[in-house]
Structures are given as structure tokens and as C-alpha cells.
Write a structure and sequence with these properties.
alpha+beta, six-stranded mixed β-sheet
Amino acid sequence: MSRPAYLGKMLLHWCEACNVPVLGKKCGCGKNTKKVEVTPPGDIRPAFDYDIKRINSVSEKQFNAPLIPEEHLAVLNKAPYEDRMDEIIVDGEVLASLRFEIESCEWVLLPRLEGARRLFQGRDRKALKKWVVIEQAVVPFILEKGASVLAPGVLDADPEIKKEDEVVVLNPAGEVICCGRARMTGKEMCEENHGHAVKPRWSGNPEPQKTKLGGQSWEDAVKANEKILDGMIERSHAFIKNVAGSMDLKVSVSYSGGKDSLAVLQLVSESLDDYEIMFADTGLEFPETVENVKQVVEHYGKKLRTSSAGDAFWNSISIFGPPTMDTRWCCKICKLGPITRLIDENYEGGCLSFIGQRQYESHARSISKKVWKNPWVGNQVGASPIQEWTALHIWLYLFRTKAPYNPAYEKGYDRMGCWLCPSSSLADFFQLEESHPDLAKKLNSHLLAYAEKMGLSPEWVKYGLWRYKRYPRVLQKLAEKKEISLIPSQEAPTELHFEVATGYRPCKAGGISADGSFGQAIDIETLKESGMLSPIGKASFIEGAASVAFRESRAQVFASGNVNGRSENETELKKLMRIVELSVRRALLCQGCGVCVGHCEHNAIEMKEKKVRIKENCIHCGACIEVCPLVKFI
């Protein structure tokens, strides 16, 4: 599981008098607030009606009761997890976590003690589900010693409980003692005389539930945070005016259709008169985003500068294969390309672009400067006036100004951008099937065709394994359990074609990256046995992938045929990608002519079974690469 990351101050507090979230120690009503402990980074956001309905739907399915009462404000905190997980905060209490289970491809509610109290205490447990009643005598062992619930201590249990279900453990009086995961079925809990029945996640002394009166609105939350917002807005206005005044560049706002860039646009509109709106259409935008751009341009009455990648993604996917978190060739072709063209065609002397970037989004952005020179689009200077804002700051500001935000946020999405971004969670792709079935069908048809071409199963697509080149351990275990092959399989190639896209990755911290593809599977074992990467530099291998160092740069070759290179120097990176391509060709298409053997001054090449093999005493000089006929004549 991913570890919590502190990217900024943990700001969530709650006013118990107003019963609203507050991003500071004092509410607008004048009273002190209490701090709400959530998992870092603490990028809190509002729960929209869709989110609340989903939470209550899952709660009703699991426990036969809704978790969130009507007319109560709820906020969500995205917590680190293998896929998507949100902590649910209502009335200033973390009630539960809602997470997407990869294996079952379903949402699961993990109640905490206060959430369990609201679900069970004061209700007839026989009308509910997933409950376990234990003897009073075993309660101290659980609370004081952290013991698991053992089967002999169980008095009664919901007979429908299945192993691995989330359950709530009650004492005979019906008070919540702990919440956790069942280690046996409900029937087994009642019948067995040994064994672990429940592994607690949360345990605590019995307490009454802490439900507060509802009826609050987001307008009330805005009012409670008014002074805090005023301070943030004032600092952002000063930043915008100072940066714009210090540069002799045309000013633009880079709008993406997302909440952060909308907040920046609103701030710039309050600070400057002369600016333009810039939108780079990746060709992979939600339909709501395209419409929202039109609405935003009309709302602010400013000139729109736009450029589109068109069908560049769909024209390239057959060459590069699906983009992954490790090899996002799509960023270069669909994002970098349109942005570069847009700026070159409209801003001859360059431009200053105010951009919606925040430190709470990622570690890379938490250490980013507030003003920077785009290292790939040379005539663009970027600046972020919302670097220290949390998502809740953004939303409260948008609610306050009535800015026209993207309606896709009200359909279960917490971020905008390309709808098929490989960095999206598996939950988002299941959400896509519900909200935009035509888009989901188009993507799946391409993924299934690619899987068939590479000798991979439909389950490789279903579980989102296409999003990785280096699989996380949890997905490796899933693949083993489901018997899903992660290594592409094809017949040995008779010829190879290589395509490459090179460019700065704006989503990562600095540097240049390149993504290339042979368009077919590569036998990594043959590559390893040939030793053909050694003339480049020190090579290492794991199942399904190879890595080679070249000076300060590095390239990785995957069994899918994809190649990823990274460097701080563009010239060196291009050279690396070229010699990696040539070395893979030599390994897979070697004709055994022996020309390179005679050219090696260090006796590091031998003939073995009519093929050339690079020996361990190779000094990585690379002299043998250029003399190979495969390189010179093909």
C-alpha cells in the first residue's frame, strides 16, 4: 500500500457550532474549531450529491443502512491506496473509508467506530447486516490487548457474513466495540470452537454516536471560511500582479476544464485586464470539458487561443501500444504537441501562462517553484498563484464566485483531463463505463485488440494491467491468483520497426523522457542471453523488462516492445534511444556473420550456436554496434 505523503500543512478543522468544515483554527462565527485528523496529504474536497449517493448505496448494500444522513455536509479525503480510497468526514468525524477493491472490481465501505455507531447503535441489528455479537467477558482482551475476535467468544453473527467481509462487532448491549474484516463466515463464527473470527481495524470503548443537527449548505461553509479565503485570495492577487508586471510577455491562462485552472482564471480576471485564455485540446477530453470551455470563454469574455491534437492518439496507439504510467507517450503527442504549436503560432515573443498547479497534488508539485521556465516549450513561462491551496480552498472559492465549473465533477470524478489517462484509478475506468459508455467501449476495443495481438488475455484489460510496465506487487499477486500472464508472447520477429516520441514530461519532476515502440512483443530472455545491451552500458534484467545505463541516462526495454528513456540532456537521450533500438535489432535479428567479433579489441564477443554473444568482460565502449551489418544496411 502507498505510504502517506506530507505535501503541505494539514488544514482541515471543523466548527462544532456551525457544523461545517473550516480550513483553519477559527471559524467565521468567531469560535475556535477542532482539528480533524485525516491521512496525508489532506487534500480535502466536497462530496457532491453523486458521491453521497454512491457512499450510501454501498453502505446499504453492505449493512442495509445509509451512512450519511440527509442535509449533512460531507467532505472526502483521498488517501493512499493501491487504487482509489476516500476517507468520509461528516459532522467533523471520519466515519469510514470508501475504497475500490481491485480483485472484486467493487466499492467497499470500511466503517470506523463513529460510522459503525451511526449504522448500528439504536437500531434493531436483525434488520441490519454484517454484525457480530461477542461475549462481554472478551471485550477487555480486544480493547486493552488488541486481540482479534476469536470464534469461541462469538454469541451471534449475521449468517450471511462471508470470509473477508467488512463487519461491525457489538457487545451484548448492542454497543460498537470494533470494526474489521471477517476471517470466517458468519455460520462458522457461531459453530467453530477455535480460530480467528474477526481481525479488528479499529477498536474503542463504547460511546454514544455524535450525530449533529444538519441543514447546512456550502454557502454556510463559504461564510465560515470567508476570512481564510480573503487572505489566500489577496496573496494570489498580489502574486499575479507582481509576476505579470515583472515580465514583458503576453499573459495567458492555461485552462484545462479542471477546477484548479478555473480558480486561476477567476483570480487572474480579478487582477488583470489584459489576458487571453489558452486551451490545448488533447483529443481525449470529456464532452463536458469541451462544452465547459465554451461556457467559460463566454463567461469571462476573453479571446480563446486553442489547438487540437485531433485523432493523434488513436493514430498512434497501434504503433506505441497503450500508454502506461511508465511510458506516457500520449503526453508528448497529445499535450506537448498542441501546446507547442499553440504558443509558436500565437505568441511570437513567448508568453506568461498562469497555470493551476498545487503542492497537494503530488511530491513533484510540492517541491516545484511558483514560477518556472517550461524546459520543453522554450518560449513559455509558467506561474502558479494557487500553489499552497488545497482542493477545498479551490471549491469554496468557486462556490463563492459562482464560477462555471465542469459538470463532470458531479458525476463521480475528482479530476479532469484526458479521460483515458493511465494514471487514473481502475475505479475511474469502471466509472467511465457508467458515465460515458461510448468512450469506454472505444477504449476497450483498442485494448482488447492489442491484448490479442500480444498474446495477453481479456483479464489483462479488465483489471487495468495495461496501465503498467512495472507492475506493483499487489497486481503481481492478483495476476498469479487469477493466472493472468503479464508477459506478451509472439513469434520471433523477422523484421522490426521502431517509432519514438521525445519530449518534456510536464506531469513529472524535470528532465526529458522518450517513449518508443517496436509495435510488437520483444523476447527479453533472448535479449539477455545475447548480451547486446552491454556495449551501451551496465544492463540489468527482471521478468519482462531490461534496463541499461548510459552515462547519466537510462533506458528500459519491456517485453511489450515499448522502450522508455530518461535523461537531463535531449541530445544524449536521442543517442541513447537510437543505440538501444540498434542493440535490440542486433539481439533479435542477428545473422551470425561474425563481423563484430573481429572488431572487438577486448575479445569480449564470441560465436555461440551460430549467434553472436557479448561476454561479461565487455567494457561498454559500443564500437561493435556501428559495424554490425544490421545497423549499417537495414
